[in-house]
Design a protein that fits this description.
The protein is mainly alpha-helical. The protein has one domain. It has helices spanning 20-39, 52-75, 82-86, 89-107, 111-134, 137-146, 148-162, 189-209, 213-232, 235-249, 255-275, 277-292, 295-298, 302-315, 326-339, 359-388, 396-415, 422-435. Helix 1 (20-39) packs parallel to helix 6 (137-146), helix 4 runs antiparallel to helix 5 (111-134) and helix 6 runs antiparallel to helix 18.
């Protein structure tokens, strides 16, 4: 394969790693390694939000540390031409979203909530741009492979919990033996499942290209991650894995073998469902609810969050309720919808939704129609950059993995909130920093 061609559109494209540049990259990469290898187990049972908040508090300083080191590369540039930066896909994708979200400070009735949530958004956006431009592509690819390590560790703990062999936490009642007790150190079965999706795709590519003993390592990691995914019974994550795996293997195999592979994968999925009794029961219950036409039960009450998001967009079409203010406005939206005789999920254990369980609808509710346009523009920029990248600038496995990962994240965003969780969000940002082309086509 020929070496990637560099374009002058990228400020760092013509530069070689030497001296300060190399030190900056080494320290920046080391910070990301610490993030990957430490974040998965961090928790504090003395806090109300024992898992999500401690992970966020640890992740953000590590991300900022990596960006601080990588900024040394940019500080030595002779000039920073705005036009050259704007040509970068990551910059063009993220800047409109940041502008719209930040405008909520002046339009929202909840400026304090907006200010707090904007910190995470800006750090995530800076990580996307900084890692994409500051870390060389081979190092980014190595870090993407490294996500399999914490995923395997979390998955192993979840599997041991399911079989009652290791239970690091004491839950009230019979929760330990149920789906909600399969938390590992992620915090919930859903968080654990979301975190495993991208590493499952990475492990498949690693298994395909590895030789000798490394194939056993990749295969073992893939098996334990799939096993944990099955026992979490998180259907949205399972659907994302199945469909993204189809996207992954379609260009890697001849058409006939690809069709056979899809059939085998479907058989494996059915077999896994049958082999895990709780998952089988959950699928059977969902089928029964679907036959009854009880779509809110099929979605485990998600229609409540989606309806509230649409109501907020209806009430605040131009500016939205403000970034991070969905949770604040949910109660008022629910009361207003109840007055319209809207029926809410009867089995919901929570009186409110902190997230809409749909990234697209939550963005629409918080950012209004300008935010919808900004988000659509960002997605178009990312997809266009991937489509226009020359095939001879990266291996076919990497290209397939990039499309598969993007597919998985798009599916997860339909029924979950992957970018609102530090554990999952920074993993996704790292993957996108590698997958999105570093330079303008």
């Amino acid at each position: 394969m020929r070496r990637p061609k560099h374009s002058p559109s990228s400020p760092l494209a013509p530069r070689r790693l030497a001296g300060l540049d190399r030190m900056a990259v080494d320290l920046g990469e080391a910070s990301v390694w610490v993030l990957l290898l430490s974040l998965w187990w961090i928790h504090d049972t003395s806090m109300k939000y024992a898992f999500r908040l401690p992970k966020e508090l640890v992740a953000q300083p590590l991300v900022l540390a990596s960006l601080f080191f990588l900024s040394w590369r940019f500080a030595s540039l002779p000039s920073l031409e705005p036009r050259r930066w704007w040509r970068l896909p990551v910059v063009r994708a993220v800047v409109p979203v940041l502008l719209v979200a930040t405008a909520g400070l002046f339009t929202s009735a909840h400026p304090q909530h907006v200010a707090g949530a904007l910190v995470s958004l800006w750090i995530g956006a800076a990580a996307w741009v900084g890692w994409n431009q500051g870390l060389p592509e081979p190092r980014l690819r190595r870090l993407v492979d490294a996500t399999v390590l914490p995923a395997s560790a979390l998955a192993l703990v979840g599997v041991l919990q399911f079989h009652g062999l290791y239970r690091p936490f004491d839950f009230a009642g019979e929760t330990e033996g149920q789906r909600l007790g399969i938390t590992s150190f992620a915090g919930s079965a859903g968080d654990l499942a979301l975190f495993l999706v991208l590493p499952v795709l990475v492990a498949q590519v690693g298994l395909r290209s590895a030789r000798g003993g490394r194939r056993w390592l990749w295969g073992s990691a893939l098996l334990v991650c799939l096993w944990a995914l099955a026992v979490t019974q998180t259907l949205s994550a399972l659907v994302a894995v199945v469909l993204a795996s189809a996207v992954l293997w379609w260009p890697l195999l001849p058409r006939r073998r690809a069709l056979v592979g899809l059939a085998v994968a479907a058989a494996v999925a059915v077999g896994a469902t049958a082999a895990v009794p709780p998952l089988r029961e959950r699928v059977v219950d969902k089928v029964k609810e679907l036959r009854r036409g009880d779509f809110n039960s099929v979605l485990t009450g998600r229609l409540d969050g989606w309806r509230a998001a649409l109501y907020m967009l209806e009430e605040h079409p131009l500016a939205g309720v403000g970034h991070g203010a969905y949770r604040t406005e949910f109660a008022a939206a629910k009361l207003a919808l109840s007055e319209r005789s809207v029926e809410f999920f009867h089995d919901n254990r929570q009186v409110m939704f902190v997230n809409a369980h749909n990234e697209y609808l939550e963005a629409a509710a918080e950012w209004g129609l300008p935010g919808v346009l900004a988000l659509g523009w960002g997605l178009w920029v990312v997809v266009s950059a991937l489509r226009r990248r020359p095939a001879d600038t990266w291996p076919v496995e990497d290209r397939a993995l990039a499309w598969a990962g993007l597919t998985a994240l798009a599916i997860l965003a339909l029924a979950q909130f992957p970018f609102r969780l530090a554990l999952v969000g920074f993993e996704a940002v790292l993957f996108l920093a590698w997958a999105v082309p570093r330079e303008a086509p």
